[in-house]
Amino acid sequence: MAQAPSQDIVTETLRKIMLPDGRDLVGAGMVSDIFIADGKVFFSLTCDAADAERLEPVREAAQAAVTALPGVKAAMVALTAEKKGGQSGPEPQARNVPPPPPSAGRRPVTDRAKPGVPGVKHIIAVASGKGGVGKSTTAINLALGLAACGLKTGILDADIYGPSLPRLLGLKDTKPQQLEGRILKPIEQFGLQSMSIGFLVEEETPMIWRGPMVVSAITQMLREVAWSDLDVLVVDMPPGTGDAQLTMAQNVPLSGAVIVSTPQDLALIDARKGLKMFEKVNVPVLGIIENMSYFVAPDTGARYDIFGHGGARAEAQRLGVPFLGEVPLVMAIRETSDAGRPITVAEPDGPHAAAYTAIAERVSAALSTGAGAKPAPAIVFE
Ligand SMILES: Nc1ncnc2c1ncn2[C@@H]1O[C@H](COP(=O)(O)OP(=O)(O)OP(=O)(O)O)[C@@H](O)[C@H]1O
């Protein structure tokens, strides 16, 4: 492969990407420090929060243009509303906050009003306010981390718009066995019981589901799968906070929810919406995970905060929700996921597996104590 391009070449490429107002990205002063390592290019684009949605196609165009440069293996471009510097100072150690102790006022984690799922003690949702923040990657590694903590664990891929579990588990051509009636046997992989709509339909099948169908498909996968004796079932939710997600959060007997966010303020705005959604339906939020928290250069091991590290921790603190931990942006996480052997399986003794296991321990502790963000009581004036 050709040599990776220089920062100047990347900058020149970005000069050709135009904004709707006719300025180019570089001329508009939107491009952060550009970081290039091992053929991969990382940078962020600064914009007003209000313009984020409108500028998503520009972000995609920038990412595609840089990816197409000779010598580029991958590019990761994020939109952010804060200006960020390049390399950070030394990272303070051990900043993870343990889950808060159970307090008398917290409600029990099992919602008795909803019928439980046979064979499953606790169900937790892994959700994100927006797509592409690494929710599925986090969900599978969290599930594996919970299993490593000694919990009998399952994972249900409820992201039926874009199921990724078959790929993440290296089970692309596997079909579940049908037991009597309509009941499906979960597929066992890496010690997890798993189910995904991706096991049932071909990858090419267009997934055009309307909201209500999404909910019934998921409810069916929850209740018509022979989950066996699970301590915890991790549900990888569809991204976003629309009606389908809200109905799901309402209908699935969730013990709690975990929100995944990247550190940028714009992702955090969406994460906050996710949090509010669970509060609305009285599901305790067990905490927030910051994914792609910082970047570790593969060659030098130096740490860079190009995407604005620490935002999720601050946000969790602000919202009174536990911070569950941070996972860096490392190519090994992406590559192992793509290869169907998540990092917690591929490198169980490595630092990244340790990060996920530490997060899993906090989730497990929160489940057993009933800790989580207690929704504020509604005050009604009549
Ligand atoms: N910590 C990480 N380091 C490096 N790459 C990561 C990390 N987390 C996720 N990724 C990569 O980012 C991409 C998006 O991740 P993933 O599919 O888990 O996101 P998602 O939020 O579930 O996306 P979608 O909403 O589109 O389903 C994948 O290629 C994944 O391998």
Automatic annotation (TrEMBL):
Entry's transmembrane regions: none
Binding site for ATP: G129, K130, G131, G132, V133, G134, K135, S136
Ranges where the MIP18 family-like domain occurs: 10-75
Family annotation (PROSITE patterns): MRP (PS01215)
UniProt keyword list: ATP-binding, Hydrolase, Iron, Iron-sulfur, Metal-binding, Nucleotide-binding
GO terms of biological process kind: iron-sulfur cluster assembly
UniProt entry tagged with the keyword Ligase: no
Protein family: In the N-terminal section; belongs to the MIP18 family. Belongs to the Mrp/NBP35 ATP-binding proteins family.
Protein name: Iron-sulfur cluster carrier protein
Name of the encoding gene: apbC
